[in-house]
Amino acid sequence: MVDSQTLSTQDRVPVLISDLIRAVESTESIDYLSEYPENELASLIESVNINYRKKIIDVIPPVKYWSIINLLQYETAKHVHKTLTGSQREERLECITEPDVIMFAEFLPDGFVDDYLLRISTDDAVFIQQALSYDENLVGRYAEPSFLIASTNNSVGGIRKEIAKRKEETIKVVIIRDNSEIMGIVNIESILKFESIVKLKDIVISSSVIDANEDIYEVGNQIPHDGSTNYFPVVAGKKIVGVLPISVVLMHLKEVGLKAVVAENVKSEEDLFTPLLLATRLRALWLFINLFTAFAASAIIGLFDNVVEQVVALAVLMPVVASMGGIAGSQTLAVSIRGIALNHLHQSNIKLLVNKELKIAAINGFVMGALISSIVYFIFDSMGLALIIFCAILVNNLAAAVSGTLIPFKLKQKNIDPAVAGSVILTTVTDVIGFFVFLGLGAIFLI
């Protein structure tokens, strides 16, 4: 096993993946994973298939579970939680916190939230019910009650005494208010650092005040660049109802941003406002490359020109074969680029992804091939033609799965932006293979 402790966090993940796969295949213990940080375990879970995920969950202590779940993409968290056995679910639900109940209420067991509300204090139960009354995209859903309201003239020493009185409460931030106006906040670290005689007005940090009904995705541009605080005060009307952790905002922004992002360590050739001439040159390069690849697909058709002349139905159906392969490949390409953006796709787990995509392609290729071949048989009354297009679509789907996975990965290794170049190469592969199989089988069985 590689000593991953000496590597950076980004470099540790592929090593962890490699070690995990090797250990599982050799039936070695993976209990060592329980000692790793939550962020690395979350990345590891995102980077392997369901079988490996189950094994990781088996060795993660229940007290770490919800911290890791919070770091996963929401849909991944949902899928992971569904794989738990009954006993595992019970153990982990014993460690759940109020923010976790609010965040993951959608996939918690039926009746759990109601039972949980009966076990906690009335104030906490009211707060959770208030949070769940907001839609999932609104700030009020994620505001936490871990705050204390103070005046600008209060001293640090006085706040310390007040916090000490509330031993059962978790106070993460102090909201400073002057009359009815919120002046800002003071982090608990500052309360502990400054002398008792210091007034809060001297250490207050200006902060945006967020309305509980504001869309959480719109809050991102208000995050302070200097990292001065980790929370926003949240108000409903004129009443302070909680504090919003910036980490929650970032998590939601990450979910949205991943739909279009490419990996930071892959050169992005063009942004929204790249200078006109430079953008034109960059795009022209790939248009010229696409021109040559298009001629490659045309050359395959040219090899079977006599077949196409004799069986006109082949010419009619060629776009169907190309289109199905292109769409299937584009879907796989999007998954791979997403994995690259998240730093989840590496040499150590590329085979896992290829195997998964091949299984998906086999199932979809069989179903869609059967459907299309049935339609072809109905229209052209030719069992041979129907079987040929079935085979072509199935094979092209499999080719699209492999190429859609490997192409962006190889482009990344060459420091070429897969979002720009991937579709060009992928289209060529699916067109060439699709036409070759379709027309080749046509030449063998229809002429």
UniProtKB/TrEMBL annotation:
Residues covered by the Magnesium transporter MgtE intracellular domain: 38-137
InterPro entries (alphabetical): CBS_dom_sf, Mg_transptr_MgtE_intracell_dom, SLC41_membr_dom, SLC41_membr_dom_sf
Database matches in SUPFAM superfamilies: CBS-domain pair, MgtE membrane domain-like, MgtE N-terminal domain-like
Keywords: Magnesium, Membrane, Transmembrane, Transmembrane helix, Transport
Main location, first listed in the record: membrane
Pfam families from the UniProt entry: MgtE, MgtE_N
Record's bilayer topology term: Multi-pass membrane protein
Family as reported in the entry's similarity comment: Belongs to the SLC41A transporter family.
Protein name per its UniProtKB record: Magnesium transporter
Lineage: Bacteria, Pseudomonadati, Pseudomonadota, Gammaproteobacteria, Vibrionales
